[in-house]
Amino acid sequence: MLEIDPSDAAVADFTFSTNITLSLPDLLVGIHDLTLNLSNEVSVITFSVTVDIREPIQDITIAISIVVEEGKDPVPALEFNGNLVLPALVPIMFTPSAGKGIPSYWGLFDENDQEMNMTETKDQSLYYMFSDDAIRNITVKAYAEAEGWVAADSLLIFQVTNKIQGLSVTDFNIITPAVST
User: Fold this and answer.
1) Phi, psi at residue 85, to the nearest 5°?
2) How far apart are CA 181 and CA 179, in angstroms?
3) Residues 27 and 64 reside in one and the same domain
4) Quick check: 174 pLDDT over 50?
């Protein structure tokens, strides 16, 4: 909406407003300072505007790592029988990126589309520590002011498992001979 007389300074008994749509197909992605000149037979008005043109966010990919020890490099997540398996009670690092577009920040969402974690900038990774054994369906989303939340094309589906406890292994004296008396 472009208001021609937003401060009601017109002397006549009328106001004028209209919707204007501008198409700028030749502007490249980036920030542009534009000057908009509007005129009719009796007046001219000039507006300075800044336009931020961005590509739509597309091709979101996520690298998943396990933070084994704080301060050390995380290790890549591994697959077991073709399925991604992540440990419970250990920080998991999700590092998203977009093939096109520039997100402002990233979010990690659970099966019910509830926010689990969010970054403050586009250059940060997401961290989360799962507390229970479960098959998880997680969505990573990018946020851009012009688009809102944009979800990755596919869910992250993986098994979260706790540490093995109470395991006992015996070789039935095949490898270790029984003590003879």
Assistant:
1) -125, 130
2) 7
3) no
4) yes
Per-residue tokens: 35: 């000057």
List, as one string, the DSSP characters of 71-99: TSPPEEPEEETTEEEEETTS-EEEEEEEE
- Same-domain pairing of 149 and 103: yes
The pairing of beta strand 78-80 with beta strand 83-87: antiparallel
Of 20, 81, 68, nearest to 47 by C-alpha is 20
With beta carbons less than 8 A apart as the criterion, state whether 170 and 159 touch. no
Distance of CA 128 to the CA centre of its chain: 14
What would the pLDDT profile of 77-109 be if each residue is shown by its tens digit? Answer: 888 888 899 999 999 999 999 999 989 999 999
Helix (H) or strand (E) holding 64: strand 58-66
What does pTM read for this prediction?
0.68
Are both 87 and 142 inside the same structural domain?
Answer: yes
Q: What is the mean pLDDT of residues 117-146?
A: 93
Burial classification of residue 87, based on how many CB atoms lie within 10 Å of its CB (0-12 exposed, 13-18 middle, 19 or more buried): middle
Q: Give 148's contacts (C-beta < 8 A, 6+ positions apart).
A: none
pLDDT in tens, 4-34: 555 656 555 555 666 777 777 788 888 889 8
Mean pLDDT score of the chain:
84
